[in-house]
Amino acid sequence: MSQTPGARPCLSVVMPCFNERATIREIVKQVLDSPWTAELVIVDDGSTDGTRQILAELTDERVRVLLQPVNQGKGAALRRGFQAATAEYVLVQDADLEYDPNDWPALLAPLIEDRADVVYGSRFMGSGAHRVLYFWHSVGNRFLTLASNMVTNLNLTDMETCYKVFRRDVIQGLDIEEDRFGFEPEITGKVAAAGLRVYEVGISYDGRTYAEGKKIGWRDGVRAVYCVLRYSPRRLRRAAAERLQPSSIDEADVELAEALDTLEEADNYADWIVDLFAEHLHGDILEVGAGHGTLAARLARYGRLTACEPSPRAAALLRQRFADDPSVEVVESDAESLTHQRHFDAIVMVNVLEHIPDDVGALAHLREGLRPGGKLIVLSPAFEALYSDFDRRVGHHRRYRAGQLRSRLVRAGLSPLDVRYVNAPGALAWLLYARMLRRTPTTSGATRLYDRVVVPVLRRVEDGRRPPFGQSVVAVAQRPPA
Q1: pLDDT tens-digit series, residues 216-256
Q2: 316-371 per-position pLDDT tens digit
Q3: 11-239 has which fold?
Q4: CATH class of 245-478
Q5: Considering only CA atoms, which of 405, 397, 339 is closest in space to residue 370?
Q6: Shortest CA distance to 471 belongs to which of 414, 445, 433?
Q7: Contacts 24+ apart (CB under 8 A), 62-68
């Protein structure tokens, strides 16, 4: 690589990598030959073709290799790489040979001159050589860029480009949620919502064919369209404003109290939920967010239960309910404080994680509260498309896809054993009743009907099956043995 006047090592190059045995040696050489490279952070996303063995041979002290325990997607790899970056600027470099590091000086110039916070490299405005490949792939890229521009009010020519360069403080300050190729529209929407200075420069492009290892497919295009809408700046700002409403905590507590009261009538549902993960319960068990004790009474059958509840109102009800039960200890505390002091064989969180702003941080604290080999069980509402006004009122920050929940568990240092959806008919009912009709789904009459008529049938239908969607997602993860 030619030397560039004024070049200095100021780049953290983050390289997501999955099954790139054919190209990894050459692209690493090109990156390390650049005078701009301060460090190369390679995040291997579960490669199985020998790529990891090649990475193990790298000896340059500027290289750090981070290994994902399972394949999670490009967005998940970038999220981990960004947080590990330490240089002044952070650049995304794919592990194939489609993008040329000789374009770095043009990408860095607006940042070094303090004219930009983020720079995109456009494949459609460059004067360099471009390999001629798929027409419809090009049409798809341009369509997604147009859709993104319509909601972000930016005038990019190539939103889907790999080459994006950020000031390190900028990218580390943005919360990346998408695990796969939805990262591109997500980061663009969040950059626009933050009002950052965006520049675009032309780059060369040597695209590869699917036979040569190209991985993005039509499903990723469909997801990208959804992400363009989900991460529109208007929606992001509105969600942030709603979370800051002063009355939201009191409103959520009132709504939760009413919902928990109605669940007291749902014996069949409570039995079903506990049966989903009962085989993992033994010894010292912690229930996080025990509420009014509906599940606690059932969890205590499997071991010594500590019912942890931060709400003084709910904790008082728990103490009254279990005053004569020596197998249940009620602790009025947040889980983080408790797990600093004690360790458990199993920790259960049912409809709690979605209330916590920093869910990965919370999961990491719970991991420390598990004994080696201990199990964490999480059940949370599924699918962001089902997020309703009721979710907002009870304080839900999000709903989860199975892949998102799995990714958060891995990021917290846990090993997922099983992540799956449950209650497929409930998802359809929620979509109609709570999302479209904007009705409260936990009224007493509706809950009794659902519990007595639907749940017994539902348990038989889903027994031994894994529905492709559901109202909830349940995960069992393990703290790795010492």
Answers
A1: 666 777 888 889 988 988 887 766 655 545 444 455 555 55
A2: 888 988 988 899 999 998 888 888 889 999 999 999 999 898 999 999 999 999 99
A3: Spore Coat Polysaccharide Biosynthesis Protein SpsA; Chain A (3.90.550)
A4: alpha beta
A5: 339
A6: 433
A7: 62/32, 62/37, 62/38, 63/28, 63/32, 63/39, 64/39, 64/40, 66/41, 66/42, 68/43, 68/44, 68/410
Query: Which phi and psi (to 5°) does residue 366 adopt?
Result: -65, -35
Domains of the chain, by residue range, sit at 11-239, 245-478
- The answer to whether the beta carbons of residues 469 and 427 sit under 8 Å apart is yes
Six-digit token string for 63: 């290289």
Confidence (pTM): 0.58
State how far the Cα of 89 lies from the Cα of 10, in Å rounded to an integer: 6
